[in-house]
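Residues pack. Consider this:
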Amino acid sequence: MGMTITEKIIAAHSKYSTVKPGDIVDITIDARAARDFGGANVVKNLNDFGLKIDDPERTLFTFDCNPTGSDQKYAINQHICRQYARSNGIKVYDIDAGIGTHLLIEEGYVWPGATAVSTDSHANILGAVGAFGQGMGDMDIAAAWNSGRVWFKVPATVKLTLKGTMPDGVADKDVILNLLRIYGANTLLGYSIELYGEAVERMSLADRITIASMATEMGAIIILFPPTPAIIDYCRGRARSPFEPVYADPDASYAVSADIDASTFVPMVARPGEPHDTVGVRELPVTRIDSAFIGSCTNGRIEDMRVAAAILKGRKVAPGVVLKIVPSTNFVWKQCLDEGLMEIFKDAGALVSNAGCAGCAAGQVGQNGKGEITVSTGNRNFPGKQGQGSVFLASPAVVAASALAGYITTPDLIPAIPPEFRFSQTQPSAAAPVRSAGTDKPIVIRGKVWLVERDNIDTDMIFHNRYLAITDIREMGQYAFDNLEGYRDFAKRAQAGDIIVAGKNFGSGSSRQQAVDCFVSLGIQAVIAKSFGAIYERNAINAAFPVLTYNTFEKIDLKDQDVISVNMLTGEVVNERNGLKTSINPFYDAQYEIYKKGGLLGKI
């Protein structure tokens, strides 16, 4: 039996000639990156455990979350990283460079068939060039920097083939939003996706980057594109190592194969709160906006800038609307300058920032205020992710047209005279008191249940990005769930020893370790969910924090605040209220070994 692209890349970087879904293997990582918000924690882990750097030439920092240098806590973290880099001969792509995942491609750290890890949960963007990239937490990155390897569970692969011709006006962003409408946030949870079809073969690198970037929002491990000759030529001119592109074997085995009629795709927007809550732009009621944003790792390429400029040229942003534009890298920024796009943007009334992630990261241009309505080319619109307002996701063409119109629309329907309207204001919230972490880690646990019957609880709901500069675990517990509606007082009400039971895709979204550590800080014993976001599951396992999966608790009539006991090796669960028993999925071997060590970086 042949192998898929993912399986072949993982096998080539392991000691095995073949691998299959479910295998857990150590793989060599070609490029190992940390960003400014996660970098300081990576340094802390390395220093705390006395670990050295395996290969400085493959190791780098990327300061893309706060490239304006406008936040004091980020500035401190960046300084910590710079000092560590100087002492260890590590390259720093500083606040003038741009988005780290784009730089990995642009600077030749990855190529078709390569592997890479980053503290960026969108490192799977590298699937755009046929590379295997993964976002991971601080412990994983520290381990990769020290040994050059990480453990990984081989995912099953889904093959999607786009059939037919896409209609005019359907952009790369629309492709992924249409796919999200079909598959949602967890249908393909934990799968690797390979994308095929004539429409796919014609896609540019920018198109592929946009689609690959939002694999995370689909719950997938990665979206991989078989590299075309144009992609191979682009990478050969930059790659720091010789390579041969990787393609699936003709007899590769796929968990699911599906044909999708691309001729039915339409320009889309994702409504606030969930990237998969998508609707055709023309199906959306008239929706006025306060601000518009063009950029992010999804749509910050020069092609995106050209699309926006063509629409904005000779026009003015609607009164009362703020348009923010952020190129993905400094190279793209200079291209905008050389091609005269900067002049078009400024003449239209846009605010242009230096290259970086922008709205997704707290403290940088792109954030909105409470009550503010934004249309954005970003990849996420979780509550609080791009500020305290509401965020619609759309293509650069729709965002530029909407900025001119004053409401969400398409380029062919921009009104001659846009409406005027005013902005809302926001009020800061007060912080809760600090609580410290528990330490006992038994095989059988007993605790009171918090039954959180929701799917797709993302890391911004668990631990909001405005707290990402916190590195002291003792300070994290007070912010657990403070962005999850109905549970904002969870940290005040929860008690050490409690157990959380949730639905599908718990911990989707960002790679932040704090979304695990905040529960450790509170003394929560475990999270039991129907499924987990891939990065979140790794972070929890690596921190020796129990995460377990289940199918149903109907057999034991589980209710909120029931007390249960859980044997994490056998999977037996007992509801003490009624004495009923059931089984869930127990620890698997690799998880138990890390748990026994007290964490990935610990010693027995």
Observations:
- The CA atoms of residues 147 and 280 lie 47 Å apart.
- Confidence is low (pLDDT under 50) at residues 423-439.
- The chain has three domains: 5-264, 268-413, 444-597.
